Amino acid sequence: MNGGGLAYRGCTPLVMDAKKLPVILQFHGGGWVSGSNDSMANDLFCRRMAKLLDVIVVGVGYRLAPENRYPTAFEDGLEVLNWLAKQANLAECNKSMGSSRVSGSEFKKPYTVDALGASMVEPWLAAHGDPSRCVLLGVSCGANIADYVARKAVESGSLLDPVRVVARVLMYPFFMGSVPTRSEIRLANSYFDKAVCLLLWELFLPKEEFSLDHPAANPLMPGRAGPPLKFMPPTFTVVAEHDWMRDRAIAYSEELWKVNVDAPVYDYKDAVHEFATLAMLLKSQQARACADDIAIWVKKHISLRGHEFSY
Questions:
Q1: Which InterPro entries match (predicted)?
Q2: Active-site residue, 273 included
Q3: Are 262 and 235 in contact (CB under 8 A)?
């Protein structure tokens, strides 16, 4: 995110035809205070997912802390989902008025647009995006945003038509809690250690709201507002062996399983937090394997045949 307004960066498959493509909204990591949707690493990761899945990937830029504390990043994420619905509806209006469609050949390269929502219709998205097959993909703290946006999508229901969140991918979500898990005790001093993460939460949450059991940090707090877990979309969770946050992510997935949500956990051995999205590790075998695993699982939820059976 650069500057004061929202921004997004999109990636499309190299070869596009007349078919409508699913849309992935991707939320980058960075511990609330750093990272960008148009960084080299994030761009390469989004390109990889666009190619593997044959989808449009929209890398979302959200405002960062400490200048913009909670709930700004969450609200920015939700605004993007509402913007996607707006684009789809405006595209239908334009179609009924006889507006011409734009060739996909103009959008084979990534593009960046600032002032999200300022323009009426993004022609590339109107021509090629299928918002009824929308996937939320979040990396680290971006996974927290994806979790929030999914809950709000469920609450909104038909108000988001034609947008429908059919699946989400949570990559090593940045969850915490006041009662430490085994991994939080055993791996507290591992890569991206717990002390640093505590500082990041202090920078992100308003001082008067700071708590490791804040709804933004702990998805399993009793009485957490929002729809019951049984209404959540299918959720694919990525965890790493040497990531102290792993146990809480696994626990969240287990609670989803208990209410019959498709919620597999893929646990990568000898891996650290952000192993599949860090610039220095993107070309590693594990990073490629993780992207392949995500693609295989997501495809069953965005396929036209299986789409009608999503949550």
A1: AB_hydrolase_3, AB_hydrolase_fold, Carboxylest/Gibb_receptor
A2: yes
A3: yes
| The model's pTM | 0.88
d(CA 251, CA 287): 23
Identify whether 247 is a catalytic site residue. Answer: no
CA distances from 279 to 41, 49, 284 (A): 5, 15, 10
Which amino acid does the sequence have at 214? H
- Give the C-alpha separation, 293 to 132, whole Å: 23
Catalytic one among 36, 132, 140, 310? 140
Residues 274, 140: contact at Cβ < 8 Å? yes
pLDDT score of 228: 95
Q: Return d(Cα 26, Cα 59) in angstroms, integer.
A: 5
268 strand-pairing partners: 240
In DSSP terms, which residues pair with 24 in a beta bridge?
A: 57, 135
Angle at CA of residue 23, ends 249 and 273, nearest 5°: 30
DSSP string, 88-121: HHHHHHHHHTTPPPPPGGGGSS-EEEESTT-SS-
3-class secondary-structure state, position 37: coil
Catalytic residue among 243, 247, 301, 310: 243
Instruction: Give dist(CA 47, CA 21) in Å, integer.
Output: 15
Distance in Å from the first CA to the final CA of the chain: 32
| 95-117 pLDDT tens trace | 665 544 444 433 443 333 333 44
Tell me whether residue 39 is one of the annotated catalytic residues.
no
Domains, the chain, ordered by start? 7-307 (3.40.50.1820)
pLDDT digits (tens, 9 = 90+) for 224-238: 888 999 999 999 999
The yes-or-no verdict on residue 37 having pLDDT over 60 is yes
Give dist(CA 249, CA 134) in Å, integer. 22
pLDDT band at 138 (very low <50, low <70, confident <90, very high): very high
pLDDT of residue 311: 34
